[in-house]
Backbone:
């Protein structure tokens, strides 16, 4: 599938406790969504699928850690999680997520208390998706 700017695109930043979510409906503006709190991987996969179908997403970008300690194990876990999504109708691409969580925390310093509600995770997903869109 060839990517075009008007393709509805989502990004997930998969963590062990939360999954950050961001969407772009026009290939330009990226909006963070409510993060998905992970109780177990099947529930999390179902919740991600629900978001993707609700927004009629055509392409999913998944943040992958590169060049970090333990990045190979996290990459394996993330790719396994993506396989649980069973996305036959949605094209999947991977994007380096290095530094996105740190950047999200820096961007939002003083704007809200950094709780474990997933706001930072979804802002990190927004950063990852913006990087992807800038690259294509």
Residues:
């Amino acid at each position: 599938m060839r990517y075009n700017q008007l393709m509805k695109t989502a990004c997930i930043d998969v963590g062990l406790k939360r999954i950050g979510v961001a969407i772009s409906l026009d290939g330009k503006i990226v909006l963070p969504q409510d993060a998905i709190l992970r109780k177990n991987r099947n529930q999390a996969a179902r919740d991600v699928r629900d978001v993707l179908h609700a927004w009629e997403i055509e392409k999913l970008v998944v943040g992958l850690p590169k060049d970090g300690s333990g990045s190979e194990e996290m990459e394996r876990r993330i790719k396994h999680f993506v396989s649980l999504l069973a996305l036959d109708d949605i094209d999947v691409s991977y994007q380096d997520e290095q530094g996105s969580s740190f950047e999200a925390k820096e961007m939002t310093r003083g704007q809200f208390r950094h709780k474990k509600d997933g706001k930072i995770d979804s802002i990190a997903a927004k950063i990852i998706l913006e990087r992807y869109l800038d690259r294509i």
Observations:
- The beta strands are 9-14, 18-24, 31-32, 36-37, 59-64, 91-96.
- The mean pLDDT is 88.
